[in-house]
Amino acid sequence: MRRSNENLRRFAQIASHDLRAPLLAVLQCTQILEDRCKNKFDEDDLSNFEYITRTVCAMTVFISDLLSYSQISTGDSEVLPLTDTGAVLQTALANLRVSILATDATVTHERLPGVHVHPAQLLELFQNLIGNAIQYRNGLRPQIHISATRREDCWLVAVRDNGIGIRPQYCDCIFEPFKRLHGSEQPGSGLGLSICKEIVERHGGRIWVESEIHKGSTFYLTFVG
Ligand code: ADP
Asked: 0.90 cut: is pTM over it?
């Protein structure tokens, strides 16, 4: 198991390195060509250029998600630092600033605890969950609330949204790699929630969702300690 994980990690690293460079070259050449010839193009040509750019950008995101997924590790014997969840949430919100502003989303939170999770992985969790809460919005202004409750042996963190919701029969499978319910009409790799699951489980916790279609979803995460 350990050997095959290591192989996957190495494969993803090499593949991402070797794929990213030609993709970047395609993107740069497309931009140069578009800049040079834009006066000669008709609307169809321009929309084809836009399609190339969009597709290449989507592939770049996919490759970096694949790399993140393959690299999640808590480092077997490592002592995990106590991470300030509130501070990491602020960084996630700063990174998501553009989409928060574009959708006029509000993100509120309660007092959040310190948890024994790598800061970079906690950041990835918040960015994925809040990013999804914004992306899968319901035509309404996204309202996202993050809370934390102390349980006997863990912290329970909840990320609640007022988005499109998820039908009960899909609430488990969305955590599987590449499973998407809104595939073609929304950008994404289908890896975000699998990355979250991998991170949470590697830290000894659990992640699940409770949802009502058209009303919103709440993603729950437990952190031991
Ligand atoms: P991606 O967003 O790239 O498709 P994810 O693994 O993050 O991949 O999510 C898998 C699927 O779960 C999404 O395609 C979407 O259909 C559904 N989903 C995730 N988060 C939410 C949410 N907050 N509200 C409604 N649906 C969601």
From this structure: no
pLDDT per position as a tens digit, 32-47: 988 898 888 888 988 8
DSSP H helical ranges for 80-210: 85-95, 97-103, 119-135, 192-202
Q: Which atom of ligand 1 is nearest to the CA of 181?
A: 16
160 Cα–ligand 1 center, Å: 14
Assigned fold of 83-223: Heat Shock Protein 90 (3.30.565)
Give me the residues paired with residue 213 across strands. none
Q: What percent of the chain has pLDDT over 70?
A: 96
Q: Where are the domains of the chain?
A: 2-74, 83-223
Spatial contact of 146 and 113, defined as CB atoms under 8 Å apart: no
Q: How far is the CA of 150 from the centre of ligand 1 (A)?
A: 27
Pocket probe mutation, ligand 1, options 135, 174, 184, 195, max atoms within 8 Å of Cβ: 174
